[in-house]
């Protein structure tokens, strides 16, 4: 075996209690599972200091350094300081500059995922190499032609990691900051028919370009789901990954402790995933996303 050390990964763990780790050896015949183990997560780790943990992988031992980063920081949206940048730039501005209704970075990433990642187990849930994600990000910021080539070369999980980073760093979530609380209140309605009506009405009220981009993403995620037998990505799994990124409230006070942020964000995360699941499930069923089409 030729292990690779000192790699950094950013892992989304909303609602998770156990971190499951699989160790593979790459061989000419394909990857071979050499060991597996699990790490029970603890709230005592919710600090900004790196904590070293050892995990038994049967005949192997893996040592990892863990550091907690609150959602308020990992999902922060900082406007780009580059005039021609892509990350941290309003999506309407990017589309206007590119003379397109869908940002080129989205088209490129989705095309690459559907080309070689649609049958990959845990696509969009498995984390890619942090260094490769940063390389991709830098390329899209400086040279899109180089970025297109790099997309074909890096691990597909780094492609999805960079794509999710792009969505996280948008100055405003695709479902818009102004509409977040409205979606949240609509999702809390107990009467299912009224809940559906209000959620669909709110979707229609989103800016046209946002609706088009969300629908484009829904089309892609439905195609991912159609290969659930091989990639293990159910509609619920996909909604859990993308919901908290696409639906976000305004920023909270940065002075809150990590445990306070965790508590405050738990209900939000469940609602964010639930709201996006509603639209994803409806789209997968071939139903229109309009208030007057509640089949």
Automatic annotation (TrEMBL):
Residues 89-278 form the Rho-GAP domain. GO terms for cellular component: membrane. One of its GO terms (molecular function) is GTPase activator activity. InterPro entries: Abr/Bcr (IPR037769), Rho_GTPase_activation_prot (IPR008936), RhoGAP_dom (IPR000198). GO terms for biological process: signal transduction. SUPFAM superfamilies: GTPase activation domain, GAP. Pfam families: RhoGAP. Signal peptide: none annotated. PANTHER family: BREAKPOINT CLUSTER REGION PROTEIN BCR, RHO GTPASE ACTIVATING PROTEIN AT 1A, ISOFORM E. This is Breakpoint cluster region protein. It comes from Stegodyphus mimosarum (African social velvet spider).
